[in-house]
Amino acid sequence: TRRRSPHMAGQMNTAVNYFHEHYSEPISIGDYAQSLGLSVSWFTRNFREYTGSSPAQYLISLRISAAQSLLETSDHNVSEISELVGYDNPLYFSRLFHKQTGMSPSDFRRQLQAWNEENP
Question: Which of 53, 41, 68 shows the shortest CA–CA distance to 16?
Fold first, then answer.
């Protein structure tokens, strides 16, 4: 097994923090890697080793998690939430949300509301 260098771990931690702070903005994994002077393949491989998922999948998970929180705590509609978490296409967002959670954003919200009414 390869040993993780502290430098690599630092770079990956920086990337994770960057994604957490900027997930609502358009992020190009390629541009991000290049901005650090890294090859995309090296960055992707090491990010996956560090986090357990690819940079793209990590970003999707962050965005869907933020969307779930907004569906639970706000009155924003699905299109607004889509934009707030970094997707300019609500249909694409809804497909990703369904793929990640097994239900549409609207069904997710309905299920939460039903649960909250049953468990005040």
Answer: 53
| 46-63 per-position pLDDT tens digit | 999 999 999 999 999 999
SS3 state at 120 = coil
Secondary structure letter of residue 116 according to DSSP: H
* Number of Cβ atoms within 10 Å of the Cβ of 92: 11
In order, the DSSP letters of 51-106 are HSS-HHHHHHHHHHHHHHHHHHH----HHHHHHHTT-S-HHHHHHHHHHHHSS-HH
CB atoms within 10 A of CB 86: 19
Distance CA 1, CA 22 (A): 32
Whether the model clears a pTM of 0.85, i.e. scores above it, the answer is yes
Burial class (CB in 10 A: 0-12, 13-18, 19+), 49: middle
